[in-house]
Write a structure and sequence with these properties.
heterodimer, A: mainly alpha, 0% strand, B: mainly alpha, 2 domains, three-stranded antiparallel beta sheet, 10 helices, 10% strand, ATP synthase subunit b (chain A), CF(0) (chain A), coiled coil (chain A), cell membrane (chain A), ATP_synth_B-like_membr_sf (chain A)
């Protein structure tokens, strides 16, 4: 300790403090502040550049994903549309079939009814004609028969004979 | 071949094995050559004198000096010193300014304005006409004239200050000129500036507060580092191995720590949270002493490391002359070479440690009380 104090120079100590504090302030103004600022700005710049690159990459990926999504959607929509069209087509065919069938059946039924009517009318007409003809024939026959008295009397006799047997 | 692969180890091993033979051989030859006992005695005392002279030289090198001596040649009265004088500025009941050449290499008594001054071991003492110094002045710096001389150390401080100013001022300017990218020698120093920021300041002080301490940390780091490196040159400067310099640096650290300290820091010193009140009273003086011990340890660590390095290195260089034969001197040379490389490492390391601890103290001074929960 004595040795240390013996070599300790108070003047040097004071000078060192003064010079060093002065040096700190000088360097702060002319060196450290500009250097650190420049380094900071540069680092900030690098960080920002990296960040924006990363963002751009992400955006690209998003875009790509979006595109793919859109494509998939379009594809799905197309499929749906085609499916729908197919369904509509089938339904239309079915509907047409059913309608045609119904129409046909209706027509057939109508025709049947008409045929029945016609038939009935024809039958009625035929009946009328048959009855008229029968009457006429019967009249003629009767006229013919009745004109022959002998035969008539014979027949009546025969019939009367038959009736007795009963 | 194992030896072939490791030539350096081989050389050192060979030197070690050969050295004792040759080293012993020399005195034997001497004793044969000397005919009388008296001449042998003279030889020994001559040798002894030389050893003492070397010890004196090493001692002298470690001290500050008032002139800048680059080298000396010649012996005794014919000794010539090559160098340049520096101004001596003293305050002893008035200002005394004269050239250091008037001390005639620390041998003469200088008279200035009715006061007499002389230099002993690099320190100026006031004395009477016959050069008698008050013996208390040898141990009490306050009994000596206040020495504001531009000594060798101050001169080197100014040189390093100027060097730093030009170097880092230039680096700062190169950013503007070169679009934010360092140019020239700044390219080498810029990573070191960033190292101080990222590895010393931010981990110890914290992201939030480190900016206001950066100027001091960078200045201290490069100041110590450059002066340590200058200490390894043959100029023979030993600025960071001077206790006044390291003490001044540590005192500045101490003042900045205490001025910028927040409530939490003082709270931990005077009223330690989380311990019983009686313990708080006991702890307060211990903690307070701790704040003073911190800069004291900074002072001594740097001083002792640099002085030790210089003494060891110079002793090994002196050994070359003491051995005075090929093997021993060669071995000393290799050792000195290896040690010089080690000292280059130590120069950086001590600057790093000083800055690191300074940052650590700053960090404790502006720490927020987030670790309050830890005291349970």
């Amino acid at each position: 300790m004595e040795q240390l104090l013996g070599t300790f120079s108070l003047g040097l100590f004071i000078l060192q403090i003064v010079i060093f504090v002065g040096l700190i302030f000088l360097l702060k103004k002319f060196a450290w502040k500009p250097i650190l600022d420049a380094v900071n700005t540069r680092e900030e710049g690098i960080k920002n550049a990296l960040l924006s690159a990363e963002n751009a990459k992400k955006e690209m990926q998003n875009l790509k994903a979006d595109n793919e999504k859109l494509l998939a959607e379009a594809r799905a929509e197309r499929d749906a549309l085609m499916k729908e069209a197919r369904e509509i087509k089938e339904k239309m065919i079915n509907d047409a079939k059913v309608e045609a069938q119904a129409q046909g059946e209706k027509l057939i039924a109508q025709a049947k009814a008409t045929i029945e009517g016609e038939k009935n009318a024809a039958l009625a007409d035929l009946k009328n004609q048959v009855s008229t003809l029968s009457i006429e024939i019967a009249e003629k026959v009767l006229k013919e028969e009745l004109s022959n008295k002998e035969a008539q009397t014979k027949l009546v006799d025969k019939l009367l004979g038959e009736a007795k047997l009963n | 071949m194992v030896i072939y692969k490791k030539p350096l180890q081989f050389i050192i091993a060979a030197l070690f094995s050969v050295m004792p033979i040759i080293a012993n051989a020399n005195p034997t030859v001497d004793s044969v050559a000397t005919t009388t006992e008296q001449t042998a005695k003279e030889n020994v005392s001559e040798e002894q004198k030389k050893v003492e002279e070397r010890a004196e030289f090493i001692q002298h090198h470690l001290l500050d000096s008032h002139g800048f001596t680059l080298f000396s040649y010649g012996e005794k009265e014919n000794e010539h010193h090559v160098g340049f004088p520096l101004p001596v500025i003293l305050w002893d009941e008035g200002l005394h300014i004269f050239s250091s050449s008037e001390f005639k290499h620390d041998t003469a008594i200088v008279e200035s304005k009715g006061k007499y001054f002389k230099i002993e071991h690099g320190i100026v003492y006031s004395c009477d006409k016959n050069g008698v110094v008050d013996h208390q002045a040898h141990t009490n710096p306050l009994k000596r004239p206040l020495d504001f001389s531009i000594t060798k150390n101050v001169f080197m401080i100014l040189v390093v200050g100027l060097l730093m100013f030009l170097l880092f001022g230039g680096l700062a300017k190169s950013y503007k000129k070169n679009n934010g990218i360092a140019k020239g020698v700044g390219r080498f120093f810029e990573p070191i500036v960033i190292f101080v920021r990222d590895e010393i300041a931010i981990p110890n002080i914290g992201e939030k507060h480190y900016k206001k301490y950066m100027s001091h940390l960078l200045s201290v780091f490069f100041f110590i580092w450059f002066l340590n490196m200058f200490g390894l040159t043959p100029l023979g400067v030993n600025v960071t191995g001077n206790i006044a310099i390291t003490a001044a640096l540590a005192i500045i650290t101490y003042l900045i720590t205490n001025i910028s300290a927040n409530k939490n820091y003082w709270g931990h010193i005077f009223w330690m949270p989380g311990v019983p009140p009686i313990m708080r009273i006991v702890l307060a003086p211990i903690e307070l002493l701790g704040t003073i011990i911190k800069p004291f340890s900074l002072t001594i660590r740097l001083y002792a490391n640099m002085v030790a390095g210089h003494i060891v290195l110079m002793s090994i260089i002196a050994m070359m002359y003491t051995f005075n034969n090929v093997a021993g001197s060669g071995f000393s040379f290799v050792l000195a070479f290896v040690l010089s490389i080690l000292e280059i490492l130590v120069a950086g390391l001590q600057a790093y440690i000083f800055t690191m601890l300074t940052a650590l103290y700053f960090g404790s001074a502006c720490e927020e009380h987030h670790h309050e929960e830890a005291h349970h």
